[in-house]
Protein: Ureidoglycolate hydrolase
Amino acid sequence: MSFRFSHVLHLFFILSFSFSILAHNEQDPTTKIMEDFSGYPIHEPQFSASTSFSVDTENLQLQIDELSRYSDTPAPSVTRILYSEKDVLARRFIKNIMASSGLSVREDAVGNIFGRWDGREPELTAVATGSHIDAIPYSGKYDGVVGVLGAIEAINVLRRSDFKPKRALEVIMFTSEEPTRFGISCLGSRLLAGNDALANALKGTVDGQSISFFDAARSAGYATDQDDLSSVFLKKGSYSAFIELHIEQGPLLEDEGIPIGVITAIAAPASIKVDFEGNGGHAGAVLMPYRNDAGLAAAELALAVEKHVLESGSIDTVGTIGILELHPGAINSIPSKSHLEIDTRDIDEKRRNSVIEKIHQSAITIAKNRNVTLSEFKIVNQDPPALSDASIVKAMEAASKELNLNHKLMISRAYHDSLFMARVSPMGMIFIPCYKGYSHKPEEFSTTGDIANGVKVLALTLAKLSLA
Ligand SMILES: [Zn+2]
Structure:
């Protein structure tokens, strides 16, 4: 995808003078020669996009606050679980805002919501942006939300600037980015990327209350044809670009005082479930030489994970044991079963996979040495990393510069719907600072100013890519 400088100039004219883009579609050859000769553009913008772009920060904040009230836990925490009553109400809220921003709204079989602003050239593929609004228990109101409500506001910004898209612009609200209900993260975007295995697996998937995925989806008005989710799949190349605006969920931008993060890559996540089984027994009666303690096997494996991650030699390799359960879980009982869940990530897929292999070898060795059974070693998911598309990175950087906003190239260590959208579309992400890097808790916060900056960069990037 190429982006021509002439288009930027055109955009400035549209924004500055509300000229019709049609009238300025081809650059005057004389101007081109003069520019080549002087080395400077003849059409210096009269004022930058930053002065013509007005984000309605007050209304956007009101919307963010109102959306946060569709929650199953009291404010300031937000809990919004897939296909729950609050989720359905929140979806209605989003669709109403999309419609009142002049977008035509459609939904697919799992409830991915699309709001479309048609372009001048309907045969061209659209440029898309979006994120999610589901929220894990007791989390905050900005994660994902900024990339949905902020994206709709970016459309409003462009409308107020009299911008006319050449390629259609679409805002997508993805279904279930968080794995809370069915244990599958980025459910909507994984399906959009055309995942037959997932579509099949969902037929047998139930939540913690044994409610099937399809029953839950139907209760929310989706998946009426329960045998087939292939209608959700997008063909590769369905969009010419996809950009997601998101809070950083880390402290770097705030620490460095930089308002915009331009994402060059999303780290490759993997998760593993491990079970050990031993004989258990009474904590007093069974003497140490006669034990095979499943709990100690888990503890040893947890430390082995840390060792293998550190030995990769790269700061980008990380590993976490966020779940460690012992059975029967009594102080006077030797654990007869242990269950660990390991999350490991890297921007280098090969390096991450070699860490996974070492963890597996350690699990086998530990089981042997401790005379316990390794009853499960299951790699739940092992996703490749995604690289941002070079032309989208260029457009995001150019937009930041034109808006006089400092930016920093960075890696997303958390993963997002963008990781999966990258399989069907060139992808890019924009990060904004969040307070102390807090996320997934009620203290999660971004200032209206930081959100407005993100919305402006998104708006200008969408405009550039729409004209490309
Ligand atoms: Zn998110």
Summary: The chain has a mean pLDDT of 90. The chain has two domains: 57-267+385-467, 269-382.
